[in-house]
Structures are given as C-alpha cells and as structure tokens.
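agent> Task received from the user: take the single chain below, predict its 3D structure, and emit structure tokens. No templates, no multimer pairing.
agent> Plan: (1) validate residues, (2) run structure prediction, (3) serialize to tokens, (4) report one or two observations.
agent> Step 1 OK, no nonstandard residues flagged.
tool_call: predict_structure(input=
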Amino acid sequence: MSKYFRLFFVFFMFVFLFGCVSEEEEYVFVFNEDFQTSYNVGDEEPDWRDAYKAQYKGEEVDIDINIDTSNVNMNEEGSFNVIYTGIINEDNTITETLKITIIKSDTNDQDEKEDITVSQVTANKKTYAYSETVLIIIYLDNPQDYEIQSVTIDSVEYDEFKEGSNNDLVMIEIELDWELKEGQIRYDLEKIKYFKEDELTTINVQNAGVTIELSSKGRIYITSINAPESVTAGSEFDLEVSILNIPAYEIISITINSVVYEDFNITNNAIIIELLAEEEDQMIIGIEEITARKDDSVKEFKFHDKFVTVNVT
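)
tool_result: status=success, residues=313
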C-alpha cells in the first residue's frame, strides 16, 4: 500500500511542479502609457509604482514588486534606469527596466533638447518560436505630437506600423522567417524620423532595445532535401523533404517555387512529392513554406535557403 502511495505522491508532485512552471510564464509587466518618463533637473521623484502593473493571463494581479532606483539622481542631467522585479514565488521573478530622461530646465538650452525621447522598447511577449511574428512596441515621449515617419531597428528602416500605432506608440511587426536555433535575439532601436514643421527630421537613439527568447517548440524544421542528381526532360521524379515536426502538426500544404502542393505522401517524417521535369535545364527547387494544423490552429512556416538542384537532360 505504501509503495502505491509513494508512486502517487511522486506523480502528484510532478504534475504540480509542471503546472507551476507553465503558469509562471504567464506573468508579465505592463507599462502605463500615461507615466511620465522625462523630467527636469530638480523635479521631485514620481511614484515609481505607477509605471508598471503586473498581469497574469491578461488580468491585473497583486504581487510584491521591488523597485531599484539607486541609479536615479533627479538633480543630475542624463538617462537613468529604474529596475522592477516582480516576485512570483521564492524561485521565480519577472523583471523590466524603465529608462527615464532628466534634462536641464534652462530655456536657453531648449533648442538643444530632443523633440522626442524613447520611454521604453518592449515586445508583446518574451518567448517566440520559429516563424512567428515579433511585435516590437516603442513608447515615445512626444509632447508636440510630431508625426512619426519611420523607425530604424538594426539598420532596417520601417515605415509601416501596425494598426493602433500613433505618435506616442509605434508598433512594428518583424517576422522570424529564417533558420534560428534556441537562444536570444536583441533588437536595437537606432533612429526615429519625424516631421517637424513639414521638415523631415532624424534623431539617433542609444541604449534602447529589447531582447527576446527563441524556443524550438511549436515549429517545423527542414532537416534535408533529397532528389535525383539527374532526370530526363518530360519525366516525373520524387522530391523528398525530411522534417522535424515538434509537436506533431498535420501538414496541409507545401509551397515549392511559388506553387502550392496539397497532394503528397508523408513517410517517416518525410514529405514525398512527385514533380515534373518540364525541359532541359538546371532545375533549382526551393522550399518556401509549409502550412500545418494543430488542433484549431493553422501556422505557416516560412523557409529561406532550402533548395536542391536537379539536372534535366
């Protein structure tokens, strides 16, 4: 009897601990867009507790939050970091860093101040899987409501913003559409272009960005592509695309050279497609996309540099 009890107890603790880990990942800090992040030298410290609220699965929750303001000097000009640490339990925490700017209030220096400052750069979540879209959220202090033309992230200029963006909140979608392994990716905001009195103006941004985590779960990998080295024009041949499918998705279609194929066989984690060698030439076969379904969710997994060459004689 005691043996079965011990087994049941171990199983219960495993389920309990696994559930705790999953739930802890749902805790996030949400920034209060009305919180002021730009101050004059000598201003009183704000109530730092108003900057962030903790949420669990989209609902505000009350957890202990430690706020480190040791880096902040309200009597000194510059940029300072306020670090927020939310305590979920003894072993798990969440953190966010708030960047504030303190400037001189001397009106003679007004022209030297930046018209726009960056309050915060974040993402809509911390962990992403291959082929997902990262939503970069840029909070701006833009008191004159200048029109934002574009932002530059990692040397790439973006002038198309997600619906819901405005002159104080810019949202950029970046697709993870290349082969990446588990680890971290850093996105750094470098420039902001805006219209000031109908003149396009650029400001350079430093020390503003966000780091995300990549997970191998919930994606499809292409491990190899096999085809005959040489075929005869007018003949048919098999293309074999080997995949790593974690978790097991139902393959709906595969796009090859911009053509969508829904008629194929799957054997031992390999997609077998019959192709036609139409004319004598070097045939470059590129895998561009695999569409798959799991439960009620359909995902499109995009690929680059996944191709094989077949000589058609």
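agent> Step 4: summary for the user.
The first helix runs from residue 2 to 24.
agent> Done.
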